[in-house]
Amino acid sequence: MLALEAQKVIELRLVRLAWGGREGSAEMQSMVTEKVYASFEAFSTMMQGGSPETIIARYREHVATNTKRLSAA
Q: How many Cα neighbours within 13 Å face the side chain of 8?
């Protein structure tokens, strides 16, 4: 499910990046920052004994938030 849900975010981000300008630059910066933060969060969860299911559920939350944010604009 995560892969399918992420496709929508990828589509929405590509459109925003293609438009360029301030919004495109802001989205690129946001994308990189979010990815770094999410990887640290996943690593921390893993080191604390979290399951892969917990990590995937959290990634799905991030994807849902991004879908909502990008769809609203």
A: 15
Q: What is the 8-class DSSP label of residue 48?
A: T
pTM for the structure as a whole: 0.85
| Residue pLDDT tens, the chain, 73 long | 999 999 999 999 999 999 999 999 999 999 999 999 999 999 999 999 999 999 999 999 999 999 999 998 5
Domain residue spans of the chain: 2-72
How is residue 25 written in tokens?
């630059």
Amino acid sitting at position 70:
L
Are the CB atoms for 12 and 72 separated by under 8 Å?
A: no
Alpha-carbon distance of 69 to 27, in angstroms, equals 11
